[in-house]
């Protein structure tokens, strides 16, 4: 294998359209185009504990996130799919990295600044744990959403600090790949987020999915193309549908032959049709959780070998192996 790619997603609720289009689909595309490279895809359950609800919620969310990935993913020998918390070496490396990164620099992170009223140490140290996820496997490129760019810069900085301190290239300095250079809006116009409950979940039952689509924020005005072209509805329609479908819709709007309700209904029907296969696979996995557990375990076996070798090397370079 030539290079190593990695991406992960928090196990906090079912991944929504923004997760699918900014992370999951781009990753699938890279896998198809880079058959000689190795891909690490993980469920970030340790990160999810920063906003812990209860035992059952966390377990169910792990299964939902795994089922979402598996509904899109076709396994090949160059893909490792695993659960973050199964790799114990992540936590060990997390401690080592903490000891080299300045406290004051973490205080500048947007995660810290935006959570000051509900801050725990896990949220504060979130970027260091993310660095551990990446540096443990000698990753060359990280597939991220736009809002994770700052965390990757921290990962790169930590790696450089330790390499300089030990006067040896212990860590590869990872690069990153961002598919979308803009934030995918939620149905209320703000960034789509599970915590804001402004999502479109393509795996929801039909009634809930339709309710989400119909709740996309629009005006009550009679519409023409100039009025609608910059609306949340059209932005989401363009992201979710294909070029042909979007062009057809634009013509109907310009000819005043369609209104907001009908546009929303078309989007709803498009999702049901276009993602019918993925919806079927999702419910198959959700109803067969032992299959999910076995897949994650198989991924763990591969990744664990790499993690053990790397942590042994790090300990040796730090002077901990005697």
Describe what you observe in this structure.
This protein has a five-stranded parallel β-sheet, sandwiched between helices. The longest helix has 30 residues, at 289-318. The relative contact order is 0.14. The protein has 15 helices and five strands. 56% of the residues lie in helices and 8% in strands. It has 322 residues and is an alpha/beta fold.
Mean pLDDT: 89
Q: N-to-C terminal Cα separation, in Å?
A: 33 Å
Q: How many beta strands in the DSSP annotation?
A: 5
Strand order of the main beta sheet, please?
3-2-1-4-5
Strand content: 5-15%
Main sheet summary: 5 strands, parallel
Category from helices, strands and their pairing: alpha/beta
Global geometry:
globular
Radius of gyration (CA) equals: 21 Å
> DSSP helix count?
15
Give the helix level as a range of percent. 55-70%
Order of helices and strands: EHEHHEHHHHEHEHHHHHHH
Uncertain segments are: none
Which SSEs are present, and which pair or pack?
Elements: E1 4-10, H1 17-33, E2 38-44, H2 45-48, H3 55-72, E3 79-83, H4 89-98, H5 103-106, H6 110-113, H7 121-135, E4 141-144, H8 149-166, E5 175-178, H9 206-214, H10 225-228, H11 232-240, H12 243-254, H13 260-274, H14 276-286, H15 289-318
Parallel strand pairs: 1-2, 1-4, 2-3, 4-5
Briefly, what is this?
The chain is an alpha/beta fold and 322 residues long.
Task: Name a few traits of the molecule.
322 residues, alpha/beta, five-stranded parallel beta sheet, 15 helices, 56% helix
């Amino acid at each position: 294998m030539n290079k190593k790619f990695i991406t992960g997603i928090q196990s906090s609720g079912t991944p929504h359209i923004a997760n699918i289009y900014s992370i999951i689909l781009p990753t699938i595309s890279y896998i198809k185009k880079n058959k000689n490279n190795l891909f690490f895809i993980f469920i970030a359950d340790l990160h999810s504990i920063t906003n812990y609800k209860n035992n059952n919620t966390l377990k169910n969310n792990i299964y939902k996130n795994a089922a979402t990935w598996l509904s899109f993913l076709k396994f090949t020998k160059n893909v490792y799919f695993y659960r973050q918390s199964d790799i114990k070496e992540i936590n060990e490396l997390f401690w080592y990295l903490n000891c080299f990164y300045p406290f004051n620099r973490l205080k500048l992170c947007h995660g810290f600044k935006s959570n000051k009223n509900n801050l725990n140490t896990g949220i504060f140290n979130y970027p260091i744990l993310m660095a551990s996820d990446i540096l443990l496997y000698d990753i060359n490129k990280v597939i991220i959403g736009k809002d994770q760019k700052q965390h990757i810069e921290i990962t790169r900085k930590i790696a450089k600090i330790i390499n300089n301190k030990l006067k040896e290239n212990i860590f590869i300095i990872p690069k990153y790949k961002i598919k979308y250079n803009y934030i995918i809006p939620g149905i209320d116009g703000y960034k789509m987020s599970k915590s804001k409950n402004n999502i479109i979940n393509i795996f929801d039952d039909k009634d809930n999915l339709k309710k989400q689509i119909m709740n996309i924020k629009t005006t009550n005005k009679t519409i023409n193309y100039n009025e609608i072209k910059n609306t949340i509805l059209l932005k989401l329609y363009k992201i979710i549908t294909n070029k042909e479908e979007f062009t057809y819709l634009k013509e109907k709007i310009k000819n005043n032959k369609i209104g907001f309700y009908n546009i929303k209904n078309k989007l709803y029907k498009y999702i049901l049709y276009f993602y019918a296969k993925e919806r079927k696979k999702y419910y198959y996995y959700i109803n067969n959780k032992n299959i999910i557990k076995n897949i994650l375990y198989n991924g763990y076996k591969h990744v664990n070998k790499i993690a053990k070798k790397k942590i042994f090397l790090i300990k040796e370079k730090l002077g901990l192996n005697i």
